[in-house]
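Two proteins follow. First one:
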Amino acid sequence: MNFYSTETVCAITGANRANLRRWLRGGLISENHVNKDWSRHQVDEVLAMMALTSGGATLWQIYQGRHCGLDYSWSGWVARRGDLLRQLELGSDRELARTVRNLAGDYSSDDFVNVLMKPLNRWLRDDTRRGASRRLTRFHEAIVHHSDCVKRASARQQQMPLLLEVVSTGDETEVWLEAIRLTGQGFCVEVDQTSQPMLYSSESRHDHHLLWCGAGISHERMTQFQRGLRSGKPVMLSGPDRSVHPAVAEARVA
């Protein structure tokens, strides 16, 4: 029988360590009593969980369907956004942080960020109703807090170091959402918020280097990036707007 390390299971399935721990504790993945690694059967169970959670089903709904003989009643991503909106409006900071943490443990980092949090972030930014500014501020602070929490956990686990250098920002919250997503993929993410370009030195402690372009990139920074590529440095462009703007301002993240 083949067995797989946790890192391999995360790479194969797209789940993260928090998912595996939460699903295992909830009885949604069977225990492996042979050794600490993961069996092929467990990997198949993780893949099945990924398929079920991709629609926004809660772990309780999945548990009911699997162990209680009940039909699945999918509440989906709209309901999850509603859960967060209620916390943003009425919950304490601790309750909001717990809700964000639990949702991050329920779903893959890609689904958590791309399907749930980014659309909610855009909706909050477009909201013009009473209290919209307060809700958006609370959301941003909750995302930064969760990013700090997962970064500390990834550092303890000695995951692969990655530098996310902020070149420009259009939406500050998206930088931290990307840091959360990358952490879920097995990286220990350091966000560099300074306005000074990082140098591609051979002594860099980061195995990967991403330039976050939220509102374009200057000619000077693009030239530096291309120089790094030609010299074989592990650097890539990232972010929603990677176009070259002659006068783009280097932005600091709050």
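Second one, unrelated to the first:
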Amino acid sequence: MTTTTVRLLIVDDDPLVRAGLTFMLGGADGVEIVGEASDGSEVAALVGERTPDVVLMDIRMPVMDGLTATELLRARPGAPEVLVLTTFHADEQVLRALRAGAAGFVLKDTPPAEIVAAVRQVAAGEPVLSPAVTRQLMLHVAGTPTGVRKEVAGDRLARLGEREREVALAVGRGSSNAEIAAALFMSVPTVKAHVSRILAKLDLNNRVQIALLVHDADLVADGD
């Protein structure tokens, strides 16, 4: 079985962090470091030149932060996946990056093997974000009043058909395509088709944004 090589761009303003990540991740099977950037303002050009599959993006950088860079990058057609690199579990900027289309986040003290696994996971189109982590972020972050956000999210989800809504709620609970297929008596390709339609109808980039919208609408119970 041949392992597909994931092309990775590392973005961090600390040269020691970049060097450490390059050393740790560059030797992993199936990962190729195609470039480094020290600031978010360098990302767009490097993505155009190096065509990475995944961008490992620091949040706090002096000229253009990772949040702004993520928003600009994910607004482009055919953009690579973004995996946020942070020192905080629950942080407003992390949540904003996820809303902008980042596929998940890892902490800077995460073991190298787990970062490699996360890079491969987002490259395969699967988010790196559990329902528990989503709830933690939502609880710790201030912003739009809960009632307003809940109403807006509910209105958006109302655009979905019945089966699409069921799939969206399952995504919000953190279920995989296979788990959704088993629970809703569908084939996995049918689940994938529903997810694609949900993304298109709601103008979202990835499953993380579906999950966040479901959480905004307060449709995931604490026990899920």
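SUMMARY FIELD: The chain is about 50% helix and 10% strand. The radius of gyration is 17 Å.
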